[in-house]
Specification:
Strand content: under 5%
Largest sheet: none
Number of helices: 8
Radius of gyration: 23 Å
Helix content: over 70%
Distance between the termini: 41 Å
Structural class: mainly alpha
């Protein structure tokens, strides 16, 4: 396998998604026309599976954003300051969108940690759970969902501002 084969193998997922520049597409297509090994890779699903595997890894930055989300959740539930809660989650949502450029990631990072924290924070709260019945657990889950939804709404407002900012600065 030549150095060109290694380069083309790395480019195949982007080539399949048509996310390459015209000169790079021409390079890949010229190589594929002359290399049987890379032709097989291009037609197999192995290179696509490799690409999906890479996307599932968690990086240091993913962990930082998740930890920040937990910190904001703890801060807003312990201090109860509505103004700082709304502003901090809007800023957090905007920064998360700028970093990931994906609204679904903003949704997940702003809602899931808050949902988990709300359950952890209230599992021993006598207002929610006294006998651990199905009704009380359901109430706890509904309450945690409501709290996560509130946090997510402000994060999505921040992401919306980030989206508008990106569109106006292009």
């Amino acid at each position: 396998m030549s150095q060109e084969c290694s380069i083309v193998e790395d480019l195949l997922p982007l080539y399949k998604k048509q996310a390459l520049q015209a000169t790079t597409i021409e390079f890949v297509e010229q190589h594929l026309a002359n290399c049987e090994h890379c032709q097989q890779l291009a037609t197999s699903k192995q290179s696509l599976g490799y690409h999906l595997l890479m996307k599932r890894t968690i990086t240091f930055f993913h962990l930082v954003f998740i930890v920040l989300s937990f910190m904001f959740a703890i801060n807003s539930s312990l201090l109860g300051n509505q103004t700082s809660f709304a502003i901090s989650y809007a800023i957090f949502g905007g920064l998360t969108y700028f970093f990931y450029k994906n609204i679904w990631i903003v949704f997940a990072i702003s809602s899931i940690p808050v949902f988990v924290w709300a359950i952890i924070n209230n599992i021993n709260n006598s207002l929610y759970v006294t006998h651990y019945s199905l009704t009380e657990i359901g109430t706890l889950l509904i309450g945690a969902s409501y709290i996560a939804l509130l946090h997510t709404i402000f994060a999505l407002f921040g992401a919306a501002f980030a989206i508008m900012f990106r569109r106006f600065t292009k």
